[in-house]
Amino acid sequence: MRVKSVVYTRQRKKKWFRRAKGAYATKKNRWRMVIQHLEKSMRSMYRGRKNKKRDFRSLWIQRINAGARQNGLSYSRLMNGLKKAGVALDRKILAEMAFSDQKSFQSLSEIARSQ
Prior knowledge:
The longest helix has about 40 residues, at about 30-70. The chain is an all-alpha fold. It starts with 5 loop residues before the first helix and ends with a helix. It contains five helices and no strands. The model has no long low-confidence stretch (mean pLDDT about 95).
């Protein structure tokens, strides 16, 4: 006696078709095209999540550098001075301070300069 896998197969495919909803042309209603489309998009999603971290770190460094230049330091001298002084602030917080709270960033620059 042969066992049909109709229900299981339909359930499995429905998940993929739901994710491909809104895709262009036959990428939303032909099984092979759906598989190819979603595999490619999932690769791009994975890559995008990694690139987002890279892009934000780059933005933070640019903002810290701009704030450091306003206080007469370069980025590398500021970061080296803060590390020697034992200031444990990450780049995200330093960038936010350089962008929105210049007075406290200026005091950090003085601490870094004195090292």
